[in-house]
Hints:
The chain has helices at 16-27, 30-33, 45-55, 82-87, 98-103, 108-120, 133-137, 141-152, 179-197, 214-221, 238-249; strands spanning 4-9, 37-42, 61-65, 92-95, 124-129, 162-165, 205-209, 228-231. The protein is of the alpha/beta class.
Amino acid sequence: MSRQLIAGNWKMNGRLAEARALADSLAAAPVARGDTVEIAVCPPFTAIHPVAERLGGDRAVALGGQDCHAAPGGAHTGDISAAMLADLGCRYVILGHSERRQEHGETSADVAGKAGAALDAGLVPIICVGETQAERDAGRALEVLHAQLEASLPEAGAAGIVLAYEPVWAIGTGRAATPDDIRSAHGALRADLAARLGNGGRSVRILYGGSVKPDNAAGILGLDDVDGALVGGASLDSESFLAIARAAAG
Ligand code: 13P
């Protein structure tokens, strides 16, 4: 199994001065230079290049985008292609985040198309799935996860992706999923991956996202089938993001 991945999703935060300052403190951190955990940041498009410059050429912290278009180029006003992200030095791209599914009406089929484009451009798609509170209350959480995963995978399948379980009700609420919830969701997703990829589905990392903070990180990252975290709010503060990374490094 590869290293745990701690990825920061800055969402629509980080004007240039803030983004550069955050990049500087991450680049200087010893944990980012270690080999037990992989750290990535996904700034808004406008800050990717300035952050890349601050992280430097021998980048200890990987870069990612927060979305890309499914087409390689053309008449798509306001959109960004996967190859454009690759040009900027990105290794990852977050796809199908629930905020995009909800605010932009993205479907799992859209996500699958984008994931295919990301793989074609040499990026690793971080595909997000997660149930709403209403779906959980109706006892449908695992069914929703299974359906979203199956429909969000690119044509090429699950090889070369990262998966993120982000229960919608845990995002930005301060109410992380319980260890039991996480075990059951990650176990079900792992079984789906195993059925597709063999080898216990271990070649794909499954991240947990939703109110990961320094004080709950060790408990979450120590669970079986949790291979890292996708961190929102706490990734905007270098101290708390690095504390989460140190928890992953053990
Ligand atoms: P929070 O860590 O702010 O809950 O956000 C999680 C998330 O949406 C990461 O993609």
